[in-house]
Amino acid sequence: MIAWTIVQIGVLVWAIQMLWKYYKASGGNKFGLPEPPGPYGLPVVGYMPFLGSKPHLTFTKLSQKYGDIFQVQLGSQKVVVLNSLDVIKEAHIQDASFAGRPNSAPFQIFLKSSSSSFSFRTGNAQWKLLRKIAIKALGMFASSRNSRLEAVVGEANEELHAELEASNGEYFDPQQNIFSCTASVIGTILFGLDFSNKDTLLKPILSANQKFADFFATGSILDSLPLGSLIMRHKVKDFVKSLEPVVALVDNHIAEHLVHCEEEDDVRDVADAVVLAAKQTPSDLKQQLGLTDDRIRCITRDLFGAGFATVMESFRWAINLLAAFPDVQERARKELAEVCGDRPLQLIDRSNIHYNEAVLLETFRFSSLLTLSLPHSTMEDTTLRGYFIPKGTTIFTNLFAHHYNPQYFPDPESFTPDRFLTADGKLDADKAQLVIPFGVGKRRCVGENLARQELSLLIGRLLQQFEIRQDTNNPINIRDAMPGLTRGPIQTPLIFKKIAL
Ligand code: HEM
């Protein structure tokens, strides 16, 4: 009896949804415009059951039928998917109403447990101020004479390279070591992480990182169903608990920064620069937008959360791709030797290592780490390409569809760094601009510059020291990736053979 009632309610909700969709699609709104086309779904769950384990591929296929912009119903979420460079730019660069974040359960839960996060906050005045401080702080750190990126990467590399060397040219899974190296770099750059107690520190970061990727997976029950957080309450509890030690770790490190920094000469790391940038904010704005110490701490927490796994997974992609394509690896190493000789790669060399920079760009494109970027939401009723998009619509930016569009990247399935070089072997700036792993527009990644610099150093210096080989009997699977918010590579054991200098 109860089951029958549930079915009846489901059918009724579905019928109402369909009627509403028909009304909207036929132009029943203040703009008199239709909503974007898209596939029909099932009652209540909408298109969720058809998303599959690789939603970006499902959306890319749907875009072939419905066009660059289409919509799907995922449970209670109406989602508009943007699939081409032009439409992505038009929405995110030209229209401020696309700068929101969704109100879905994962976002609400995360904001509650990390109340001042700006990355997951909708595009309001507070977000604007916190983002501005983060950008100013990263810029201040990069240009300060205390910018220690090269030295910090050097220190972390020493340990990583020693661990790789200790594998004695045997097959070995480097995942844990890469994780430790990248956590150490970003933690030191951001807030002077003291790694003397490394093993105790890394465990909670790793656990929170894995849970985070799963918690924000596209189209999950939690993300899309109204009672999702109730149904998945154990998962929610587990996720919130996993964040606690990481929050405590960052906050403990930042406590001292809040009193340390008075002027630019005092800037030792990004947290110092955040504190200084916050101090320099006009006091009326500070009061009006509630710029408390907790909000200041949260900026650094956000940067750590956003800047750690992304760099780590990109580094792993680069290593795997270089192992899978030994000719690319050899050519990149040769260029490093020509430009740097025996000394380690420095940031200043980046303008001369065209092929290595092309390898990094192709790694970004090929991996498309955040396939659907971070979800946005419309903050106002708006229009795009002649379609009406109501306030509160979730927006997915299908970066993967663009990065695999043969119109921009011929033979997109192939790993070809040469596509970014001019005929005389220089980096082609126009083609480089076409790769957008950091998003575009109002919410574009604030850590882009730091990420590019860090990855360039990590990859280049590894190539200067080691030849990376895959096991031909157990080749690397570069076509698939781990599910979740970030598309991490599937790791197989590799050989790291120390190069005799
Ligand atoms: C390869 C490395 C990285 C990739 C691929 C990446 C990619 C992205 C993407 C796609 C977004 C979402 C943009 C949008 O919503 O439209 C984003 C946002 C963000 N990223 Fe990154 N990122 C990387 C590294 C970093 C680093 C190193 C930091 C900080 C140190 C960082 C900090 C942030 C923050 C704070 C946001 C949120 C911005 C906002 O909501 O206003 N990211 N990133």
UniProtKB/TrEMBL annotation:
Enzyme Commission number(s): 1.14.14.1
Q: An example Gene Ontology cellular component term from the record?
A: endoplasmic reticulum membrane
- What topology does it adopt in the membrane? Peripheral membrane protein
In its UniProt record, which GO terms are filed under biological process? hormone biosynthetic process; progesterone metabolic process
Q: Which UniProt keywords apply?
A: Endoplasmic reticulum, Heme, Iron, Membrane, Metal-binding, Microsome, Monooxygenase, Oxidoreductase
Where it sits in the cell: the answer is: Endoplasmic reticulum membrane; Microsome membrane
- InterPro entries (alphabetical): Cyt_P450, Cyt_P450_CS, Cyt_P450_E_grp-I, Cyt_P450_sf
What residues does heme bind to?
Answer: 445
**Cofactor(s) required, per the database record:** heme
Query: What is the top EC class of this enzyme, as a single word?
Result: oxidoreductase
Q: Name one GO molecular function term.
A: steroid 17-alpha-monooxygenase activity
PROSITE patterns membership = CYTOCHROME_P450
Looking at the Swiss-Prot or TrEMBL record, what is one Pfam family this protein matches?
p450
Xref: SUPFAM superfamilies: Cytochrome P450 (SSF48264)
Q: Name the family.
A: Belongs to the cytochrome P450 family.
Q: What is this protein called?
A: unspecific monooxygenase
Instruction: Tell me which species this is from.
Output: Plectus sambesii
